């Protein structure tokens, strides 16, 4: 009798365990209720909208390109979009109608903000110099080019060394042209007059390769005042050049050759500070005393230039 009761109780417990396990399985499959998002207070939403509207009023519209545009291609509305900037670039267009139908003379990249300068003719170098300057390329090596450390935007003094020879009785060294702005080194260029980069945007790997090519570059492009262009050209042919880098702390360098009041004086000073290089002095070389003739009268002397030597001869 006891064994039958025990078997019955065991069966009941077994059924209970099965029922409890099944019920637990059903409960575990039921989705957990997600709490409904709490809506922000109406006052907070109103404040955010007010702040956004106030910030939008302080921003100015700027016309930008939505994709790359090749040169000599008229712009359409599909090429343009308007973005609002807090500090718009000076001279930027603010209406799409101002750009539709106009033709750029150079390649423009996507994201470029447009101004009237975007449609003016001229290549990279032409947009990097002032109206009274000329861009001139000078051959360099690791010694002439300051050990390959020149970068666009540096200012350099152009030095000339003349060796002693039969036509040059005394060796000399002098600054031919001071404070020349470096426009480009090899394939790398600086900023244009409107503050944009003259070189396209590069990835980190491409920039590293460009820096390596810059160090090994064999040409440097300088911005030369028009009046001193012929002197620098002659200097590259008659002697050995060196480019001496000037300190970035000289804040006046950015306007060294600019300004109507000072530019003339600087040109005259550069023309007079010459030694044994008189054919480039533009008439600033000292005159030899004239040889007296009959009765103490003087006869005009004739200047004779042989290479880099200037002599006075009386007929």
UniProtKB/TrEMBL annotation:
It comes from the Bacteria. It comes from Pseudomonas nunensis. It holds the Pfam family RcpC. NCBIfam families: pilus_cpaB (TIGR03177). This is Flp pilus assembly protein CpaB. Residues 60-120 form the SAF domain.
């Amino acid at each position: 009798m006891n064994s039958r009761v025990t078997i019955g109780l065991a069966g009941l417990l077994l059924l209970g365990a099965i029922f409890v396990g099944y019920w637990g399985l059903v409960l575990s499959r039921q989705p957990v209720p997600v709490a409904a998002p709490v809506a922000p207070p109406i006052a907070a939403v109103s404040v955010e909208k007010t702040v956004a509207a106030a910030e939008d009023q302080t921003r100015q519209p700027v016309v930008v390109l939505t994709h790359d545009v090749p040169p000599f291609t008229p712009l359409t509305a599909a090429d343009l979009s308007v973005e609002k900037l807090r500090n718009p670039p000076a001279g930027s267009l603010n209406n799409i109608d101002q750009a539709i139908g106009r033709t750029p003379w150079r390649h423009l990249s996507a994201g470029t903000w447009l101004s009237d300068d975007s449609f003016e003719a001229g290549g990279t170098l032409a947009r990097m110099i002032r109206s009274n300057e000329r861009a001139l390329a000078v051959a360099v090596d690791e010694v002439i080019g300051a050990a390959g450390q020149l970068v666009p935007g540096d200012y350099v003094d152009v030095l000339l060394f003349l060796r002693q020879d039969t036509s040059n009785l005394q060796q000399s060294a002098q600054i031919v042209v001071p404070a020349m702005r470096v426009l480009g080194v090899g394939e790398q260029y600086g900023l244009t007059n409107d503050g944009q980069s003259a070189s396209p945007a590069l990835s980190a790997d491409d920039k590293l390769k460009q820096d390596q090519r810059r160090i090994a570059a064999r040409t440097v492009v300088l911005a030369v005042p028009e009046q001193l262009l012929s002197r620098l050209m002659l200097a590259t042919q008659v002697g050995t050049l060196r480019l001496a880098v000037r300190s970035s702390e000289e804040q006046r360098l950015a306007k060294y050759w600019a300004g109507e009041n000072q530019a003339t004086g600087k040109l005259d000073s550069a023309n007079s500070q010459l030694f044994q290089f008189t054919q480039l002095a533009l008439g600033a070389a000292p005159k030899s005393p004239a040889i007296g003739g009959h009765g103490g009268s003087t006869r005009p002397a004739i200047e004779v230039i042989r290479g880099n030597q200037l002599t006075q001869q009386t007929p």
